[in-house]
Structures are given as C-alpha cells and as structure tokens.
Amino acid sequence: MTSIDAADLKRMFDAIAMAIEADKDRLCQLDGVIGDADHGIAMALGFGAVRDALAPLDLAAIEPTALLNTAAKSFLNAVGASSGPLYATAFMRGAVAVKGKANLAGADVIALFQAMAQGIQDRGKAEIGEKTMVDAWLPAAQAAAATHAAGKTLSESLAAAVEAAERGAEATKDMVAAKGRSSRLGERSLGHMDPGAASAVTVISAIRKSLA
Ligand code: ADP
Ligand code: MG
Fold first, then answer.
1. Which of 8, 20, 98, 164 has its CA 20 to 30 A from that of 71?
2. How many CB atoms sit inside 10 A of residue 134's CB?
C-alpha cells in the first residue's frame, strides 16, 4: 500500500532539482533554437529555490499541502520566465488536491499529478498541439490516471506517465508553436522539440524515480 508523506515529497523535489540541474545545458540549447535560450537556467533556478526553501522545514510537522504551497511560492519568486507562473500554479493546484491529508495513497498521488497538469493548462491556456509543455504534461496525467484506474500500481501508472510525456515531447517537433515566445517564429518552429515539453519529461521522470 502506497503512502507518500511530506518527507517523500521533499525527496521528490530534491530529485527533480538534481535532474534539472544535470539537464540544464540541453534545455538552454533547445530554447536557443526557438526561444531565448534561458529555459534550463529558469528551471534550475526554480527547482533550486524550491530545494532551498524546503530544506529547513520540519517534515514531521508539515502536511503535503503546506509543502507544495512553499514550493509554489519559491518557484514563482525565483523564475522571471514564463515557466515560473506555470509551475507555481501546478504546485498550488496540487496543494489543493491533497488538502487535509498527511499521507497520500496512490489515488491521491494520481490526483495531485492530474491537478498539476490541469493547473499548467489553466494558467497558460494552451491546448494540445500548440507546442508547449502541455503537450507532455496533459497526456502524462491522462496516462497515469487511466493506468491507475485499470488497477495498476502507482509505480506502473507513473511509468506510463513518463512514456506518454516522452511521446508528447517528441510530437512537439511536428508542431507549429502557437503559444509563448516561440509562437513568433511561426512555421520556423517546425522540426524542433519544445524546451518546456522536454523539461516536463525530465521532471516527470524524476517524480517517477523518486515516488515509485
Ligand atoms: P520564456 O519563454 O519566458 O523564456 P521559458 O524559457 O522558461 O520561458 O519557458 C519556455 C517554455 O514555456 C516553452 O517551451 C513552453 O513549453 C512553455 N510555455 C510558454 N507559454 C506557455 C503557455 N501559454 N502555456 C503552456 N506552456 C507555455
Ligand atoms: Mg526562454
């Protein structure tokens, strides 16, 4: 029986920060092709700030909701790029989804994951096919929910999420950007992976590895 508490979520954020730091240069390179080359820096700053904000917390005394709200606030304050409010909204919506729970069962983690993806979509108003991080996050959340609803474990559900995110990120190569900075390129954005979708795969993979 899965049970995820505040300490597990802190470990998850630490794992994301490490994975993003290791991926920083690739993400900046991808953003350099169709954006302003700062996406790796923005994500590393954001998750680094989250790691630093969570470090002093008394994990025995704090619930997942408060931890996620701390993550949201520190990410937003650290990141000036468009990914700042998008991920901050993800964590804030995740906080609402698990309100009042000290320990999260598998279904709660799936609900948290879905709320994060929905938060990103609501904040940025991007639809599938517009070449953004939504093209990775939304199918990932749908795959996680469908796999869990079919009776699979949290670990299997998050593995399905990673696969769906990878397919979604790959598919952004064939899309024309319709949202964000790269939409100014129009057809010239074709053939290149969206950096936000690429970093979403890194984030979701780290989530899977740390919670599974
Ligand atoms: P900026 O474009 O301000 O430099 P970043 O480089 O940090 O911000 O992030 C760029 C990524 O943000 C894009 O690759 C895309 O995935 C994502 N993005 C931009 N606008 C939106 C939006 N409206 N909805 C969802 N994602 C978006
Ligand atoms: Mg950028």
1. 164
2. 27
SS3 of 86-143: the string is HHHHHHHHHHHHCCCCCCECHHHHHHHHHHHHHHHHHHHCCCCCCCCCHHHHHHHHHH
What gap in Å lies between CA 37 and CA 159, rounded to an integer? 29
Helix 64-78 and helix 6-34, axial crossing angle in degrees, nearest 10: 30
Read off the pLDDT of residues 104-157 as tens digits, 9 standing for 90 and up: 999 999 999 999 999 999 999 999 999 999 999 999 999 999 999 999 999 999
pTM, entire model: 0.98
Domains and CATH numbers, the chain: 6-211 (1.25.40.340)
Q: How far is the CA of 31 from the centre of ligand 2 (A)?
A: 6
pLDDT band at 1 (very low <50, low <70, confident <90, very high): low
Q: Does the C-beta of 131 come closer than 6 Å to ligand 1? A: no
Q: Is the CB of 134 under 6 A from ligand 1?
A: yes
Q: Cβ contacts of residue 116 below 8 Å, gap of 6+?
A: 90, 91, 93, 94, 137, 141
Do 27 and 210 contact (CB within 8 A), yes or no? Answer: no
Ligand 1 atom 11: residue of nearest CA? 196
